[in-house]
Structures are given as C-alpha cells and as structure tokens.
Prior knowledge:
By secondary structure, chain A is mainly β. Chain A is built from one helix and 22 strands. Chain A has one helix at 2-24; strands spanning 33-38, 41-56, 59-63, 68-73, 80-81, 86-92, 101-105, 110-115, 122-123, 128-133, 138-145, 157-162, 169-176, 186-193, 205-221, 226-228, 231-238, 241-246, 248-253, 256-261, 268-273, 284-285.
Amino acid sequence: MCAQKYKITVFFALVTVLTVAFAAVEEKPKAPVVFVEQARKSDLFDQLTYPARLAPRVNATVLAESEGIVSKIVAPLGRQVARNQRIMTIKHTDPVYQYAPFTVAAPVAGIISQIEVTEGSLVTKGQKLAAITDPTQIRVLVEIASPDLPDIRAGLEGKLKVVSVENEIPVKVAGISPTVDSATGTATAELVFNKSEPPLPPGVVGRVSFRVRNHTGIQIPEQAVVYKGRDTFLRLIHDGKSKLTPVTLGPSRRGFIEVVKGLSDGDQVIVRASAYVADGESVTVQQGGSGALE
Amino acid sequence: MWQTVSLSLSSRVGAERLNRIYSSPFRVYLALLAAAVAGIYCGFKLPISLYPNSSKPTVWAGMSYGSQTAEEFLNTHGSKLERQLRGITAENVDVERVEGTYEPFEVEYRIEFKWGTDPYAAQREVRHIVNSFASRLPEQSRDSVWVWLRNRNAGFFALSFYSDQRTLDNLYDVLEPALMPQIANVKDAQDPMLWNPSAKQIQIELIPEAMASLQLLPKTIEDAVNGVLMSRNGGAVSVQSGAQLSVQMPRIPIKPEDLGRTVIPTHSGKSIHLADVARINFEPRMTENQSYKTSGTPSMILYVTPRAGGNVKKMSEDILAIVQKTMPSLPSDIHYKTLVDPSEFIRSAVRNVSHEVAIGALLAVAILFVFIGSLRNVVTAAIEIPLSMVLAFILMHLSGMNLNLISLGGLALSAGMNVDASVVVMENIFRHFNIEKPKDFAARLQLIVRAVREVAFPVIASTISSIVVFLPLAFTSDLSYAVLGDLAKTVVFSHSFSAIVALILVPTVRLHLLSKEQSSDHKAPIESHLKKLEHWYSEKLLIFMEKPLLKWGTYGGLAIGLVLLAVLVLPRLEKEIIGRPDTDWIVLDINTRTNTLTRQMETAAEEIEARLLTQQGSKIQYTFTQVHGPNNAGIMARLRNKKEMRKVWKQMEEKFTNSPMTTYHVQPWNPSELPIPDPPHLQIAVRGGEAQDRADIASALDNLLEEHKVFPRIWTEPPASRRFGVLIEPNLEQWIELTRTTKTAPITPSDLADIVLVATQGRRIGHLPMNNQLTPIVIAYPRGELSTYEDVAALPLGINSKLIPLKALASVKLSEVRPTIFRKDGRELYLTKARENMGEEYKAKASLAKAQVLVADWQKTRSKSGNSTVSVAFEDPAKDMNEAIHQLGIAVGLSVLLIFLTLLIQFGSVAEPLLVLVSVPLGFIGVFVSLFVFRSTLSLNSVLGIILLNGIAVANSIILVDFIKRLVGEGISAKEAALQAARKRLRPILITSLTTILGMLPVAFGFGEGGKILQPLGIAVSGGLWVSTLLTLFLVPALHVSYLEWCQRQSPSERLRVAWMAFTGRMRRVQIPVFLRREHAATTREILS
C-alpha cells in the first residue's frame, strides 16, 4: 500500500516536472530575415515630363499674289518640290494684266502638304493656296508649365518617347518663349534633336522628359522608412542588430526617397523584413534580394 | 404537473390507476407505439441543418463614390445613411451595431443585428433604406449599390469545375445552360452562382496623346458609344391584311469589333472613328482580377447559399445529385471537385452522433446486463433509449426546432441518462420479486405497483432535478441560448419522456413477461462480486463513519481541495465559446509585396503549390488555389486524413517561413464551423481628437506593441500607418482665364478628375449584350502608363490646339492622405487588435497583461508630453463570450437553488435537500480536475456540462437520503439505516451512474465530425460524475447519520429553532405541504408492513 502511494507520488512529480520542462523549452522566436541596402551617394535629379508634339521646322504657306483663276496645278498634294519650282499657274482676271497667266513657285523645298484650291477656283489676293512642309526637318514643341520654367533652359537635354519608336530619342531645348500663355499657363519651348533627326512624320505626339536639379545625395526605397507619429526613422544594421535611427527626408522620386539628414554613405539600411523588426533585435540578412533598385 | 404525478402515484387513487394501466399491457403498447410512430414521423419532418436556427444576422451594403472622395461622400451622404441604418426599427428587427468602412473608392457598411432577428427581414429593411437613399446619389454611385446577406449559420455549398482541354469561357458556356436552370429550381437554394473568373469585358483603351491632340475628353467618347449601344423602337405599321410590321432601329455594334466604327465628333468639325483614338480589347475584367485552380487546372466555382431555416442537407444533396446526373451528358474532359458540402458534414455528423448514441446505449446495456443478468430484461430496459428519443422528436417538431449538431449532441448525451429511471424501477421490481416470489397475477400486480410506488418518488425527484437545472438557461445571454438552447431542450424532452416510459412501460412489460415466465430468479453475471462489493462498501462506510478523525479530515480535505481547485485551476482553464470541429482543409495564405500583375502571383502560387505537393503530396487529396490579386493568393489543400492535420500544419509552418518578400500563414479551415464571433485577443480603441492625431496615436500604439512583440499578429483597423496619395489642386486663377479665351467648349475641373480616373482605374460606361450576358464596356488609358505621381502630372490635355501637361492647370503633388475612414456607430475610430496564432491561444492571457502594462506606461509619458484629447482604451473583445460564461456561472448557481427548492418541496424539510446537495460540490472537484487533466476548455459546453452534472449527481444522493430517511422513519437507528441503505441501494446507484458515465464516454472522446464541439461537455459530466458518485457513497450517508444523531441529541423544538435560524426569514415562511409528508409516511409504512 505504501509502495503504491510512493509510486503515485513519483508519477505525479514526473508529470509536473515534464510539464514545467515543456513550458520552459518553448521555442524562441526566430530572428527576422531582412533585405538590406547599402546607402550610397549617387547623382540625384528630378524628372519633369511633358507631352510633346512633333512639328515641321519648315512649313511654308503659299498665298496668291493677286486675284485670278487657277488654271493648272502642277504639283499635287504630296509632290516633292524644289525651291522656286512651279506649283501652279494662275490666270489673271484683271484686264489690266491682260488675263496673263502667272506662275506660283515654291518658296522653299519640301513636300506639298496642303492644297486649298482646285483648278478653276477663283482666288483673291492673299488667299492661301498651298502649304509646303519639309518632313526631313522637324522640331519638337513642348508646353512648359510655368512652375517648371526656372528649371528649363536652352541647351537642357531631354529624352523623347514616341509610341512608334522603341528607344528614347535624345533632344535638346533650342529655345523657350519668354511669355506664358495665360489660358494654358504654359510657355512654348522648341526642342531639336541632338543627333540625326529620326524619320518621324510631323504631327506625331509623344512625351519628353528632362532631368533637372541634379545633385548628389542618398536615396533609399520608400518602404524602408519607419514613421512614428510625425517623426521618420530608418532601421540600420549595427553588429547584426537593428538600430532605429531618426532621419530627415527629402523629396520622393519614383519609389525612392531622398534622405537629407541622418544617413551616411555606407550605412546598411533594412529595406524589407519577414516580420516586424524591433529596435535592437538581431536580424538575419538575406543576400541577393536587393530592395529592388532599378 | 409533477406534483400531481408524484401525488397520484403515491395516493391510493393512483395505485388503482396504476393497476389498471399495468394489467392491460396491449393498451400501453398500442399507445406507445402510436406515440412512437408519431415521433418517427415528426423526426422525418424535422429540417436538418448544421446549427440551430437562432441567428444573429449581419447584412452588408456598399456603393462606390463615383467621382466623389471618401470624405466628401461621408459628409454629404454617408453619415446620413449610417444614421438611417442605425435607426432601423421593425418588428423583430433590432440593430446592434453599424460599421462603415470608407475606402478610397467605395464604402462598405456592416449592419449587425441582435440575436434572434429574422435574417430576411433584416436584409429587407437594409435594402429598403439603401435603395431609397440611392435615389439621391449621383448616377455612378446609384448603379453600384449592393446589399448582401450572409447567413453563416447555414454554411454554403461550393463545387469547382475544371477541364484541362478547354478555356474557362468555353467551360462556362457548356456548364451554364446545362446546370444553372436546374440548380435555380432546387428548394432552399438562394442565389446560385456559377462564377467564371475569366469573365471578359470590352476595354476601350484610349490613346492619351491622340485624345489630347484632338481635344477629346473621355465623356465625349462615352456619349458617342452610348449613342450607338441602344436599339430603338419605331412603332408598328399596320398592313392591309391585318398583320402588323414592327419597326425597329437595332443597335449598331453587335460585336466588340464594331465598336471601333463608332463615329466621334471633334472640335475641328471633322469626325473620326473610335478606332482612330482607341484600341478595342476583349479581355478579362480588370477589377475582378482573380483566378482559381483545382489541383493546378484553372477552375470556376459553383457557389450556393441556403435560405435561412432551409434544409441545407437536402439542398446540398439535391444540387450534387443534379451535378452527378448531368455530368455524363457533358464532355468527358469536364471534372468537378467538392470544395464545401455541408451535407457531407451533416451526414457524417449524424452518423457520428448515431454511433455515439449506439455506443453509449450499448455500454449502458452492457452495464445493465452485468448488474441485472437476464438479457430479455436488459433489452426491454434498453428500449427506453430510442423510445424517449423518438418521443422527443414530437416536442422538437412542435417547438420548431431542427436537427443539428447541437440538438443531436443533446440526444447523444441523454442516451446514458435515459436508462436511469428504468433501471431504478426495474431493479426495485426484481428485488421485491426475489424476496417475495409471488405466485399469481394479482400478487404480481400488487407487488409491481408497490415496487413502482416505492421508487416513484426518487425517480420523479431525480428526473425533475436533472430537468429543472436547465431552466436558468432561458434567462442567460442570447449567445449561450443560441448555442445551447437546442441542446438543453433536447435533453429535457427526451429525459422527461424517459421518466414517463420508466414508470409506465417498464412495469407493464415486467408484469407481462413475468406472467409468462416460470422462474423469476435472476442472477447477475457478477452477482458474487456485487455481493462482495456491497459487503466491502458497507464495511468501509462503517469504518468511515466511526472514525471521526478520518471523517472530519476527509471533509476538511475535500473542502480545502475544492477551494484550491477553484482558486488555482479554474482561472487557468482556457476559455472559449465552443470547441472547433475537426476539418480536413488546410489553407496556406500567401502575401507578396511587389507584384504588379496577377499573372506573377499565379506563377508564384504554382511554384509554392509544387513545393507543397512534393512535401506533403502523399497526405493531400487535392488542392484548390485562389489568386485574389497580384499580391495575395491562398492554396487550400484537402487532406486525406483529418487526423494528420496537426502534423501537416506543423510541418507546413516549418517549411513555409516568412521571407522579406513573401509572408505565409498556415491555418486549418473549417467551412462548417459554428458561426460564433471569433474575437481577437486584444483590442484597443483610439477615439476622439483630430483625425490626424488619432491616426498618429494609433500608429504609435501599433508600433509600441510590435516593438515588444507582445503578440505574433498585431494590426490596426483601418491601417493607421502613413499613406501617401496624389493631390490634384486646380489653379483657380488660371481657370478663369482658360474659360475666357478657349474658343471651343472649355475643360472643367471635373473633366480633369475624370481624365485622371480613366487614366488610373478606367470607368465602366455601359454594357453590350453578348451570349445572353451583359458584357461591361470600360474606357481606360493603357495599363502601366502611370507608375508615379509625376506621370499623373504629365497626363496630356489638348487646349487651343496646344498639347499641355495636366500640371499646367493644376498643382499635382504627393501628400499624406487618409486612406480609409472607419466608423462604428457613427464615430470615427481606430481599433488596434492582436491575436495569438491558432493553437496557441492559451498564451493570450499573459500577453494581454503584458500589453496592458506597456500601454499604461506609454500613456503616462504621452499624457505628460501633450494635451491631446485622443483617448486610448482597452476594450474587451471577448465581451460576449465572457458575459455568456459569466451568466452561465450564475445559471449554475440558480440551477443548484432550483434543485434545492425542488427537493425542499419533495422532502418537506430543509436538512435532507442540503444533504442531497452535498454531491454537487463533490462533482465540481471531478469536473475541474478532468478538464485540467484532459486539457479541455472552460466553454459554454463545459459549463452546461456542470449544470447537467448537478442534475444527475443529486440523483445518487436522493436515492440514499430517501432510503435512509424511510428506514429511520420505521424506527431503525440512524447508523444501521445508513448501512442498510448503502448495501441495498449500491446497485441502482452504480448502475445509473455507470450507464450515464459510459453513455457519455463517446462524447467525451470527441470522435469524428463535430465531436470536438461537445467534447468538453462529455468530459465535464463523465469526469465529474464518477468523482461525485464515489465520494457521495461515503460522504452523504455519513453526513446524514451525523445529522440524525445530532437531531436526537437536541430536543425537537431546539432542533427546529437551530435549523431554521440557519435560514433567512423568507425561508422560514416556506410552508411544507403537510399532505405530502403524511402521504409519504403512509406509503412507506404500507410498503414495509
């Protein structure tokens, strides 16, 4: 009987010990796995983008010099003409000129892009007859919003993107109108191609982007920033541990944000983590996965 | 009623009536047979569903803002609508809570109603308010209004269809006409839906620069497209013959390609085709960018919810039958898999409960056989189990109940209890037979009537005690009543019938059988052991009574033990509302961060699924993958064996660990879980002050808890972290100039917003009927055009033949915005919530305490630093649950009081009921210990188990106390009476207790579907009862003897004074019905003479 009791006591003691042991061996939470980015000084810039329209540099309008009837159109729409080449013949209707025919010549070389009259049309003096465009010489017209005007100067290089051309085409600001259109709030800027002009027809629309306000600085992926109330922080790695560091942020650009103060070259910044990283917590750095720097 | 029964049974008139009943067996059989047939009929008529009908409906409603912002909508419409929803008043429709979540583009309202509200009435009221409100809204919002009711009690039915040889669209075209018309006719099926995730839309992809250079606005395109989409009626021409020719102008675009021919007028006077400024695509809907896969094959879902109160089992079976019948006529490459089939669950639950009933009944019968002997007698006693159940069906039918897991559980529980009454009656009859051995019918009849009347009192008293305990349940919270009401009702119904059957059928059968039998001599198989046991017991009882040290030591020890258990063990028990049933579905939730296309997620999910299958393939039947968006997917895997759930779960958690780019969450999923609230473990509300302060405080709070890793999962609703948005502010001065100088129709600020909306999201402008379906038409800018706010600023506009950027007319900047506004009962607030991982809920209490300390410290520094009016308050997220358990605790107390009152009336004195009640705290000891040892929980069910136990446990002491009292009344000394009673009553006590304990064992083991739900109940009752029985056998006679001896020492008047002093003045006024006492005494004398 006594032995029985003893056994039971031992059994209960064992159970207690085991329960306590199991409770104690409770697994420790694993260190969070993090992606780290090294802070590096780099050239930073703001990007300004504008819709752009390709316009012919040469677009001459041919007007009637005097009243008459169009007797013959020599160069129809789309015909390539040389300078001073005859486009059409107009017969005077004024008896003073004895109904003599006179020739309308191309003021510039190019392609007839518009013909406003037909043979037999009666035209008055100064009436628009045709337009000649030189498709090989094109310029890019961009309307610059007034707040951006201080940043855009003649000579500024930009990139043109049009749907039909895969690569961006380098362009350069040739000049800007000094006045702002009060209706649109923009000033027109004329851009020229840096290298050879691409075979694009005038009238094509696209987009031009400029890099302005170039400077050196550090920028980090936006998701690395920790916000606490009004304050901003970054998690840096010191000796394998995370350290919450206050920083001052600058402008944000395409998923990246400039750090104005608080971060120095070479600092290791936690960009993403598998779990919440507490201040001072040990972390495991995962190699290979960068914070998606382009 | 029971008074009359007990009265009539013990009176002379009653004796004659009993004579009449018992001597005409066939009349009794016929009456019971008729009742049984009625019961079976009612049983078949009972609707079968997963859970009780009582529901707490929640209705969702929502709409998009169109061109308004969230704040604008909230101020102009939202708050008014909320007020109207809160004010819903109709018969049986009570609103409990209205929550509004204002997302950036749309709002969702959640209207929670009180328990017992008719879900359809609730939905009707909400729909009525929302629809009448919608008439005030702008057109775009008006069209987007929806109201939805999810009846969670009933579950839902879902199948996935797939084919590896055809596209989903093709599959849809095959399945829809073949299945849906039939399924729509299934009874109780509500809104059957065959959902094709690849449903297409017509996308008019505008070319931004072309639009701008032609100075076209999206609304111009919209008007032009809608102009050609309509077919028009031109009346009819009556022809001379009398016939009529109808005149119609059909719509022009019949096919999506035709839309490109829509003519668009431009400002220059030239007209162009839509195709000149846009590409027309026919592609999957952008907004519903999801995909489903069954074992890797793209699938579509058939989803059906049942009507409230409908027969879910029948509905699911009917739909499945339709699918099975139709499948052979469909191409053989089309397959389907069951995702959720409530009928499967119900079927196995019913099967399981019937097994439990059968096992319980078999065990009970085995006990009977062991104790009584004759197989025939055992069988006749065992008839009572199914008979009282079948009879209970009648009352269930009349009270509008249905057969569900809970009410079936009630039947399983009462299986063991139901033989008790019969056993007591039968045992007593046998005892008398063995003593007297009557020769003729009249003598037998006399003997049986006497035997019945002898035990009628304890039988009725104990039955009433075990029923009366459920009364307080009716006054507990809605939650516990909703969960447990059906269980209590079933137990009450079947148990009351068991008493009636025991007093009527059992003696009749006995008399009938004994009249035919020659020998009435029964020997139990363990007769000799029983004799020895009886001897041993009375010996030990004598020792116990005669050794004051042992006696008082035991009393003291037990009292201390009970207090210790209540103080130390009880608070440690994990609390829950109700156990979770096992499931064979496990879900792996995947969240990524940087994907932009749904296709990327699909590929990722495929890889993860492959990993899962190589790892656990042998244990998985099939998988079902849902891709919800570019960064979220879930892989559901159906296991071959439910028992492997824990193992698979653990292994999956180990394999799929979070990485910086992907987070996983593994959790079992049970589509047929009881729809009770599943609150978080921590909830802190941030209210008051300015919106920005509130957000800052909430995010700081979130950070604080995260920083200390108080809980594994912490989140804030709505997200309080900083969110940035693009703000477009028109330059007002310039706008005036623009309007003055523009020659053509001027552009307005709302045009600007519209262009941005079309550029970012796209806008639905109409529908084109195709293949009997309306295909939406959407105008949008090419996708992927806009990736930052600078792109928004550069959107081209055409003004006065100039191509200008949007930023020329408005300032575009990145700014902090409020992403989501969450309002609860008309107040904006943030809720920071946290919870433990599933399966680790026991840690919650400690974590919560830690959080409270942390937050209290933080509050101190916060109040020092500023004068913010924002309040931070811990809320009890499990308020409903705690309240329910608390109220059940009161119900336990009330039930004990009720037992006492019942006994008081029956015994006619105060002392005996108190003696009887001693077995109740003894039962508590067993309950606490067994709940703790078996790691069970303090849930609604285990508390119900305690209530049930109270009712059963007193039965044992009633038998003892009643017998001792009777013997003492005959002049036998107290101690002798106790010993005699112990010897003679040991057998019925053991039989009834063992049948109940063993009958509930299957429930306590919690086998099969839904077994886990009632497990704590089974553990509480069987664990508590055996401890209670064991201790009652010693304590109650000993205490009774002490009491009687003490009485003898005191003079009667002194005795009365002392005894009554102990009770309140009210108690003193209780008049003991004199006739009862006299009658009772007379009967006892009569029996013994």
